[in-house]
Amino acid sequence: MLLLREARLGLLAAVIAGFGSAVSEVGAAIMVGGNLKGSTMVLTTATVLEVNKGNYEIATAFSIILLVLAFGITAFLTTAQQRGR
C-alpha cells in the first residue's frame, strides 16, 4: 500500500501526459481506422474531415468541445494530484 501511495502522483502525471498524447494523435487515428464512415468517428478526425469539407463552423465547434474536454480532464487530474501532496 505504501508503494501505491507514493507512486500515486507519478501515475496521475502519466495519465495526464498519456491523455494529451492520445488526443493529439490525429494521423494515427485516421490510419488505424478511427474514421470509418458510418461506423466510428473520433473527435479529432471529425474536425479534420469537416475542415476538408469546408465546414469551418462545425470544425470550430468540434475543436472547442475537444479543448473543453482536455482542459476539464487535465484540471481534474491536476487538482487530484495536488490534493495528494
Question: Uncertain segments of ≥5 residues (pLDDT<50)?
Answer: none
Arithmetic mean of pLDDT: 82
- How big a fraction of the residues is strand? under 5%
Number of strands: 0
User: How is the main sheet built?
Assistant: none
Alpha-carbon distance between the termini?
A: 16 Å
Structural class, by secondary structure, is mainly alpha
Q: Oligomeric form of this entry?
A: single chain
Number of helices, counting only DSSP H or I runs of 4 residues or more: 4
H and E string:
HHHH
**What overall form do the CA principal axes indicate?**
elongated
Structural domains: how many: 1
Fraction of helical residues:
over 70%
**What gyration radius follows from the Cα positions, in whole Å?**
17 Å
Q: How would you summarize what this structure contains?
A:
With 85 residues, this protein is an all-alpha fold. The protein has helices spanning 2-24, 26-32, 43-53, 56-83.
Note the topology.
Elements: H1 2-24, H2 26-32, H3 43-53, H4 56-83
Explain how this protein is built.
This protein is mainly α and 85 residues long. The chain has one domain. It is built from four helices and no strands. Helix 3 runs antiparallel to helix 4. The longest helix has 28 residues, at 56-83.
Keywords:
85 residues; mainly alpha; single chain; elongated; 81% helix
